[in-house]
Design goal:
Number of domains of chain A: 2
Distance between the termini of chain A: 44 Å
Cofactor (chains A, B): NAD(+); Co(2+); Zn(2+)
Oligomer: homodimer
Largest sheet of chain A: 4 strands, parallel
Structural class of chain A: alpha/beta
CATH superfamily of the largest domain in chain A: Dehydroquinate synthase-like - alpha domain
Function (chains A, B): Catalyzes the conversion of 3-deoxy-D-arabino-heptulosonate 7-phosphate (DAHP) to dehydroquinate (DHQ).
Shape of chain A: globular
Largest interface: A-B, 42 and 42 residues
Keywords (chains A, B): Amino-acid biosynthesis, Aromatic amino acid biosynthesis, Cobalt, Cytoplasm, Lyase, Metal-binding, NAD, Nucleotide-binding, Zinc
CATH topology of the largest domain in chain A: Dehydroquinate synthase-like, alpha domain
Pathway (chains A, B): Metabolic intermediate biosynthesis; chorismate biosynthesis; chorismate from D-erythrose 4-phosphate and phosphoenolpyruvate: step 2/7
GO molecular function (chains A, B): 3-dehydroquinate synthase activity; metal ion binding; nucleotide binding
Number of strands of chain A: 11
Chain lengths: 358, 358
């Protein structure tokens, strides 16, 4: 097992990464100070891992809430289902929430923990590659609004993150590839060596070699923890983690949530960011092609599947959380492995990039 | 104008108290760093003060959302109305929310600010006595759940609080009395001198003498700010501010929100806390009668208007946020002007107190 510490002062917490971690109850119980534990999971994950996690918690009062699976359910209404479950069993401010599932479960459980009785503890047990390398680490929690993704939420840190890569055994290939999109992102935005590593090991990763997966998850979490520790509330550097996300969110928002998996939308979004970076003269067309090649190699989309109206796409981009007073800020690449935040790009280059993809 | 500072390190903020403050635009504008301002108010307050506040903000992009009035609308659904309004005008993370209204508006606007794009700034302009002396100060924000009051929310501090006591000119007598319940609370829980002052000045306060009102609001905010500065997240001392509230919330919850105003329920709740304190031998029956006399003198209820089932009442008390692992903690009075938190009372004394009132 590898342990990473996300350094946030009093809010610091460990991230445990390895195989068979769902057999080690102290990874959870060492972080639970009260007696009441609510496991939040979904209809897909519950049959696979709920019983296993419950056996680790035999000394606590354990309740569970099983939500429908999917980004479409990442709403205030579903959040209220969690509150109702907590209140029906009269759980109080000393209770602990455990998020058992992918990013949607993690984001909603985290926001529920942030908001239930103005804040209770929670633990992340991410069971998808995407959530293991991204959403479970760093404390971004929340739900979607009909008019925008992740528009409602909070920065709220878990007590620990338990990443058992064996849970990926039950993850289908499409979901696995979607997770690799965020892994590749860390290489593109700040770690050229890691990107080279991924390019070299891509066949092994696609064959799901456990050693390679642990290494990729560890390096991704390491890079993310490093950035989050410097800028928890996204006042500056943390926004780099949104490479591909302003484009990607606009794709998800205009196509409708669920047409693309989040990682798939981010794949196209990263390629759009790369193409705009090339139009702006920062990287070469050949480097864009290398990005495109790697994304294709891990079975990620590099085009938008349906026609989207340009104005709709721009409108969706302008509500992105990185916008300031209406201006769209984008994460671009100065070179491969070095991203930066820009509001200084040529508008016609942005327009050309978008139109090339629509 | 009197200015109080609530000392919370980086989150510190001023509380301005006086007459005609809604004519002084810099009290607001000095605290607004972006360009977009959303005023959140309700159908009762909007015709009275919305235009006035908007004239102060002529240099900003101003939008408004006018909610239905009443505790019954303090819900996640209404909160979503605020998010929709913000997203429809594409307000971003640099936007400012202004709560213009009573406690319900303040609590919801604060929670909306805490949660919109994971946190934007907000300002409190409380227009009821209750919100001026209680909910606008200290950063408790949130909404109710069908199964419990204020069960969903966050600790989130405003940038400033602007208390123009002239807004009380449009407050009806019932609402004014409800506000005095919280004023009296500060005397009972920690300031015997202030309680004596209120007993001496009660006729002037009921005649709405502006000088007395400013003094009473200032002292209430002073006492609250002092406690909040010591314990922002209610890990200890802050719970003293809930004197009468565990009983009061159970009254509101079992009767149904809206039967009693919050301050009215707290009036009965404080009297219940006083009676239990007497049964426990801390204060005398005569002192209980003095509390009862003062509450009656300001036209507050001292009994519960409808029959409530004992088991229902106990169940409502046990979901109170001060409960820990299911145990009900209560704020009792060691003596008049000195409250403390107890889980060490005789169960039969609690039972007798409740049954005396049901």
């Amino acid at each position: 097992m590898k342990t990473l510490n996300l350094d946030l002062g009093e809010k610091s917490y460990p991230i445990y990464i390895g195989q068979n971690l769902l057999n080690q109850k102290e990874l959870l119980t060492n972080h639970i100070s009260g007696k009441q534990v609510m496991i939040v999971t979904n209809t897909t994950v519950a049959p696979l891992y709920l019983a296993k996690v419950k056996t680790l918690l035999s000394s606590f009062t354990v309740a569970e809430v099983i939500l429908p699976d999917g980004e479409a359910y990442k709403t205030l209404d579903t959040l209220n289902t969690i509150f109702t479950a907590l209140l029906e069993v009269r759980f109080d401010r000393s209770s602990m929430l455990i998020a058992l599932g992918g990013g949607v479960i993690g984001d909603m459980t985290g926001f529920a923990a942030a908001s239930y009785q103005r804040g209770v503890d929670f633990i992340q047990i991410p069971t998808t590659l995407l959530s293991q390398v991204d959403s479970s680490v760093g404390g971004k929690t929340g739900v979607n609004h009909a008019l925008g993704k992740n528009m409602i939420g909070s920065f709220y840190q878990p007590k620990c993150v338990v990443i058992d890569v064996n849970t990926l055994d039950t993850l289908d290939n499409q979901q696995y590839s979607a997770g690799l999109a965020e892994v590749i992102k860390y290489g593109l935005l700040g770690n050229a060596d890691f990107l080279t590593y991924l390019q070299n090991k891509v066949d092994g990763l696609m064959a799901r070699d456990k050693g390679l997966i642990i290494e990729a998850v560890y390096q991704s979490c390491f890079d993310k923890a490093d950035i989050v520790a410097q800028d928890e509330l996204e006042a500056g550097k943390r926004a780099l983690l949104n490479l591909g996300h302003t484009f990607g969110h606009a794709i998800e928002n205009t196509l409708g949530y669920g047409v693309y998996l989040h990682g798939e939308a981010i794949s196209v979004g990263m390629l759009m960011a790369a193409k705009l970076s090339a139009l702006e003269g920062f990287i070469t067309d050949k480097e864009v092609q290398q990005v495109e090649y790697l994304l294709q190699k891990v079975n990620l989309p590099i085009t938008i599947s349906s026609k989207i109206d340009y104005q709709d796409f721009m409108a969706a981009m302008s509500v992105d959380k990185k916008a300031i007073d209406g201006e769209i800020r984008l994460v671009l690449m100065k070179k491969i492995g070095q991203a930066f935040i820009s509001n200084d790009y040529q508008q016609h280059n942005l327009e050309q990039t978008i139109k090339d993809f629509l």
